[in-house]
């Protein structure tokens, strides 16, 4: 019937085959808050107004910046140490000013960096069994900033490379492989910013660094040389946070519009003249924290002081941003920590996990993002290849000009890589259980060690008591013999008379 009218025929075919809605396996992702016994209760969360996350998490430990008098401190707890936290629990307390940011080393679960109002950055070695007494001596102290240090980030692929920025407007790069305990000279100082840097983000292989600044500009830099590659100065969008979106060659920024509406914008990382997309969210005032999962291409937007978290899917083609749904809660969050992929519970189809700081309840609440599935078997399609937990190269290699993606161990099944690009590691199903078992073993060994010390002390105390009693008996024996001699002498003298 359409013969002789090709336009009508093609229009009809287009209408027939065009899908009515966008298909997505993450359409029904939902947020599941932990029960009260699986939260961390009684945590004195910092009252700082700094716009940071204040919390850092890895599969072994959770660290949170706390309120304390006379200097700055943060708390390090075992991830499995849920429930009521002892108010006298030992802290990491070596700073002379308030701690403003903390970040775990992505390649070492026992190493954490902190920065403070005292103008220093300190790197700490956490004992395998956790912090059992106040920790005041850091592994490294970095002294280079002239004013307080507000933000730190680890390089995503090179081992022991740390970036810091402060209220002196400088971004400093530190090589922690240096033998000195106190490092006074960074390997590079980047001085392009004219105001305080509000956020830093790396691309996948760490060859590009994006920053947002209080001067309303977004910059893309080459971190090794400090060269400025791109700069955005959008009058309609005042950016507070910026984020590289994995391998999509795009940036996402959150901030406010000219009319003070909270807003997010998408940018082409090679051309920051005009944003690809701008979207107003609401009229609230709290900072929007963006979190991106490059494995699932999901973007989470959590507002400071909000109880809700919006989530989206990102695609490389228009319209780029696809709203999925929103997690709602009555308790506002002050900050958020996120668990790395290797610490998630794959058996419950968990694809992301937040640790929500609820100041009004002195509570840290884990919040799992779950894909609903009927099958209880491992779901390959929602756990694609992910970055390995081993560094791709040393600090010296990166500083010499090499760029590599993260490397997967060769014995891991499913690992692949292209030699120069982003080497991946198949997300293993039993990792959480194995991590839990190892953590329990470490705890048991620590308890045995403590009990052994206590038993030795009791044994030595008993030995000392036995020795003292023997000495007393010997003295009494001597005294008895002396008295017997005196009695005999008296009897002998009376007989002679």
Q: How would you explain this protein's 3D organization?
A:
The chain is of the alpha+beta class and 497 residues long. The protein has two domains: 25-380, 7 Propeller (Methylamine Dehydrogenase, Chain H), CATH 2.130.10.10; 431-477. 17% of the residues lie in helices and 35% in strands. The protein is built from three helices and 33 strands. It has helices spanning 6-17, 395-399, 431-496; strands at 30-33, 40-41, 55-57, 61-66, 72-78, 83-84, 92-95, 99-104, 111-116, 120-125, 140-143, 149-154, 161-166, 171-175, 182-183, 188-190, 197-202, 209-213, 218-222, 227-232, 237-244, 250-257, 262-268, 277-282, 288-293, 298-303, 309-314, 321-327, 335-338, 350-358, 363-370, 386-387, 424-425. The strands form eight sheets. Strands 1, 2, 6, 29, 30 and 31 form a six-stranded mixed sheet that branches. The protein has a five-stranded mixed sheet with strand order 8-9-10-11-15, with no helix packed on it. The chain has a four-stranded antiparallel sheet with strand order 3-4-5-7, with no helix packed on it. β23 (262-268) and β24 form a beta hairpin.
Largest sheet: 6 strands, mixed
Helix percent reads 10-25%
Could you tell me the radius of gyration in angstroms? 31 Å
Second rung of CATH, namely the architecture of the largest domain: 7 Propeller
Q: Which structural class should the secondary elements be placed in?
A: alpha+beta
CATH class annotation of the largest domain: Mainly Beta
Proportion of β residues?
A: 25-35%
Q: Which fold name corresponds to the CATH topology of the largest domain?
A: Methylamine Dehydrogenase, Chain H
Mean pLDDT rating: 85
Per DSSP E runs of 2 or more residues, the count of β-strands stands at 33
Instruction: Please mark out the parts with pLDDT under 50 across 5 or more consecutive residues, or reply none.
Output: 1-20, 407-435
Q: What form results from the Cα inertia axes?
A: elongated
| Assigned CATH superfamily of the largest domain | YVTN repeat-like/Quinoprotein amine dehydrogenase
Question: Count of helical segments?
Answer: 3
First CA to last CA: what distance? 159 Å
Total number of domains:
2
Pfam families: DUF1899, WD40, WD40_4
Organism: Salmo trutta (Brown trout)
Protein name: Coronin
Keywords: Actin-binding, Coiled coil, Repeat, WD repeat
